[in-house]
Amino acid sequence: MFGTYRKYPESQLTLDCQFPPEGDVWYGIPEFNLLAQNITVPGLSPLYPDVHCTASGEICQLVTGESEINAATTISALTFSPLFTLTKTYFLIAGIAGINPEIATTGSVTFARYAVQVALQYEFDAREIPANFSTGYVPQGSTSPTQYPQSIYGTEVFEVSDALRQLAIGFAKTATLNDTAVAQAYRANYASSAAYTAGSEAPGVVACDVATSDVYFSGALLSEAFGNTTSLYTNGSGVYCTTAQEDNATLEALLRGAARNLTDFSRIIVMRSASDFDRPYVGSSDTFNLFYANQGGFGPAIANLYLAGVKVVEGILGGWESVFEKGVIPGNYVGDIFGTLGGTPDFGPGGVFNNNPVTAKRSLAGVKGRAVGRRRGR
Predict the structure, then answer these.
(1) What is the pTM of this model?
(2) Which secondary-structure segment (H or E) carries 302?
(3) How far is Cα 198 from Cα 368, in angstroms, rounded to an integer?
(4) Tens digit of pLDDT for each residue in 299-311?
């Protein structure tokens, strides 16, 4: 993430990376020096305890650690730290991800409007699912894979500013993306299927959405199931293309900060570069795809985080006084499924909760043994 140390003027940009290769690519670059300041922040990962900042404090970065728990804990610690002022900060979530070859290919840089917590569901072993089920995943509180979840936790879907996303895409498209012969040769295998044409093409900058799951999955069946979940949870408007482990957790922490006027949820960009395919090419296997394939996408994905990301950073800083300091009006709903920050979500259960999931959730909070949200062992 990029952000600003409190002893300096209010933050302009914070870069959020999830593990060292994503963070290291930003060090030793000609545009700015993120290692000019290293600030230890209580509550950050014991592996990555410091926030790194430029000398002016205008740009900062941290590494959260991988998975939802690490991301939520680290971003919460940052958001509520007295060391930083983040009310005008733009957060650039910059990490690598798996990619859906129906939408894009390895090395591509994607920008999401929706982040969907696809694994927050009931699960049956695939060998034991009913004959009329297409997957072993069933939305919580529901009895069918195609039914909207009846038990809403609040982290299922987040929507960020599409206006800001489009500006970021415009900046990123000015970059020359990295690619390698190994990646080109491997992605050519996807050309044998018309459905995977996008997976066989050169990397580009793509507008599509991210699925969050701590489980690192592989295969067409799971990928298609989570693609369906993305569409279902966003009322048909989300387009699943990338797989990641942290984004919904990061967004929930930033949303809680926004609810306390510590962050601005309309200043978030979710950028993921594609390091590997979420499913094999036709004729290959799920295990080969996950365990053994030399897809060649990791290097370009890491390089393109910086190559495209730095254009976004420069675009925001270069237009700070004219555009970005005052903020970019979203034009779409931004926030969670509850409408925590105000406005009306353009996704979610709607009339199931009388168009007010927050009120419904609170009204049920004191009901002991309620069916909604019931867990095993209770």
Answers:
(1) 0.91
(2) helix 298-318
(3) 50
(4) 999 999 999 999 9
